[in-house]
Amino acid sequence: MRFAEELLLLLHSDESGYFIAIPEWRMSCALAGSVLMNLAFENRIDTDLEALALVDATPTGDKMLDLALKEISREKKTHSPQFWVERIARHADDINETVINRLVKKGIFEADAGGFWSLSGKVSRSGRYPMVHGRTGEEIKGRIIRVLFDEEIPDPRDMCLISLVHNCGGFRAMLEPEEYELAEARIELFSGMDLIGRTIGHAVRSSYRPPESLRAVTGRTLPVLGLKDMLFSKAFREMNIPKFVAEKTREVGPVFKLKTPGREMVILAGAEMNRWVGRNGRNVLRTRDYLEGFQSEWGTARSIASMGGAEHFRMRKTVRAGNSRKVVEDRMGDLIALARRSFGKWGIGKVMPGEMACQRLIGDQIAQLSVSIEASEILDDLLKFEYRALLVHVMRLLPKFTLHTPRMNRYRKRVQELYAQIHASHTPAQREGKRRDLVDDLMELHHSDPAFLPETDLGFAFIAPIIAGHYTGSAMAFTIYEFFKHPHYAEQVTAEADALFADGDPVGADFTLSSIDVTHRFIMEVLRLHPVIPMHVRTAMNAFEVEGYQIPAYSTVMVAFSATHYMEDYFPDPEKLDIDRYKEPREEHKHAGANAYAPFGVGTHICGGARWTELQMAANILLIARHLGLELVPKDYKLRLSPLPKTSPDKRFKFRVTGHRHPIVPVT
To answer: Which pick of 88, 261, 482, 551 has the fewest CB atoms within 10 Å?
Structure first.
């Protein structure tokens, strides 16, 4: 292992899914120091407190080390180790990303889509790493802690590592005050025993970065756009928010301020901003503020959407299995039966409200697969209550009293009834012999730690996937519209459906990427063109600098992650639906390190059910292609967007079932 790998493993917190909090510049210097330590151990450089000299410019074969080695070899003058620590620290983000990817590839870290990492189960159980360079190794934290407290003498590598961690403040952050006091003398002793460790450690500790107050003096002036810029934009008038932000990003850059009457927000857009939020958002942005009022209407104080840090990571781990693609695969028979039941209700010749029909279709399925209840009778009330709560508390477009009309109070009562229904249906006796679902996992967490997940937060956690299903329903409506508008793709999807159902109903394992290739790429392209949630609303909980701009604490920040979907640099001819974007050699979704294709968001709150959603949407469009003949009503309908409280087809989007290609047997 490289020093940088062991450094991150030593500073990793399995509780938070991230790394122990160390000032950003110190951590950057520590990563730079770890690279220099490896170059010294590889006999490429020699160093003392005064000077760092090149010994051998021959590449090591490790790209992370060789980039630094090349930079050192190009420099004609001799500089101090501190100079090189500060120079290489500029590449700390890339070093960090490289190291994490290596640890995942080696089977030491398990990655979560939200940018969290945990030790693999094998490492946690055994205390040893899997095969690395042909042999197993003892878990670094246990090894170093034993050295500090059990009178063992470390080898030279561990002395260097102890010096590195000590000089960036890692041990003081890792250990309880009493523990640090006990170990301090040995930490100081070992930090000074190895010349390389002492030299690089001193450079890390001594490196200097101007304080925020001084750097802010040279900060750039943030571009400001206003209502006039919005109204003069055709994309905005069409309510295509990602396209509008993409256009303005091209004009003024990836960071700008948008001022409207009574509101002011900072916009972050572009692949680099998506990447920046993924790396830094956890330290400077939070979701809680704009969700507080919305959540209170559902009777909860906090949810996975408003949690941050270790709390959010713990909830993600709890709901991971219940939101996974595996649930859809295992219950594909139930999904198929429920879809056919919905098709039976649509009838032949009946004009269906497009988005509402899709939301009922998807909502029925999610209620059964995720929380194991029949919710078709309450879905419409739930949806209407959610929309009103979003318009009041998140969009701030309606006054609060509109949530307390007799009709809304009736919907709220039905929501409370739904909480009770789900709770009552998940007793041990009623769940015996049934596949574990999301509610089972939430109930287990509640019983084991009622302070973390109290009864007051449990009900909303139960129905959160059903609420999320409304968004999937909107995405499904866009899918059906594009199905109408692209008959050549519709024919290919129908051919895949007929092949998949040729020998009877398929099981989950039959939905492989090869068997639904066209369908999968069609879904990907619909999600690119029509992101239902085009941006995230956040509050700057700490002042931060991005692209040379100073963003004050308390600023409202809009992370426009989907703006890249309409940027020519990543998706040529971005308004064209072209499913071949995702085939080799184009693979446009992998541009910019996969930060350009972001239909499910970016950062720690990226959708945890993304793979569930992709499979559920694919299965449903395949079932529609297999069973139904459809037509638009009217046939010349042209898509118009409704932007609030999310992006969806407008209410004029309707369709009619013209006939059945294959029989439908509704489930009773």
So the answer is: 261
Q: How confident is the model at residue 204 (pLDDT cuts 50, 70, 90)?
A: confident
Q: How far is CA 258 from CA 211, 230, 246, 255, 266, in A?
A: 28, 9, 14, 10, 6
SS3 53: strand
Burial class (CB in 10 A: 0-12, 13-18, 19+), 134: exposed
Q: 61 phi and psi, to 5 degrees?
A: 90, -5
CA dihedral 82, 86, 87, 88 (to 10 degrees): 100
CA–CA distance, 636 with 656 (Å, rounded to integer) = 13
How far apart are the C-alpha atoms of 554 and 470, rounded to whole Å?
Answer: 30
Q: What's the average model confidence in pLDDT over 563-579? A: 96
Per residue in 42-98, pLDDT (tens digit) is 999 998 888 999 999 999 999 999 999 999 999 989 998 889 988 998 899 899 999
Report if pTM > 0.85.
Answer: yes
Does 452 have pLDDT greater than 60? yes
Task: At 86, give phi and psi (nearest 5°).
Answer: -70, -35
Render the burial of 626-662: b for 16+ CB within 10 Å, e for the rest. Answer: bbbebebeeeebebeebeebbbbbeeebbbbbeeeee
Tokens of 581: 């974007």
What are 113-164's pLDDT values in tens digits? 888 999 888 888 878 887 655 556 678 888 898 889 887 888 888 898 999 9
Helix intervals (H) in 75-120: 81-88, 92-105
CA dihedral over 170, 171, 174, 180, signed as positive or negative: negative
Long-range contacts of 404-410 (CB under 8 A, 24+ apart): 410/381
The CA distances from residue 334 to 213, 340, 552, in Å, are 60, 10, 50
> Cα separation of 265 and 284, whole Å?
15
Give CA 6 to chain center in angstroms. 26
| Strand, helix or coil for residue 658 | strand
pLDDT in tens, 489-548: 999 999 999 999 999 999 999 999 999 999 999 999 999 999 999 999 999 999 998 998
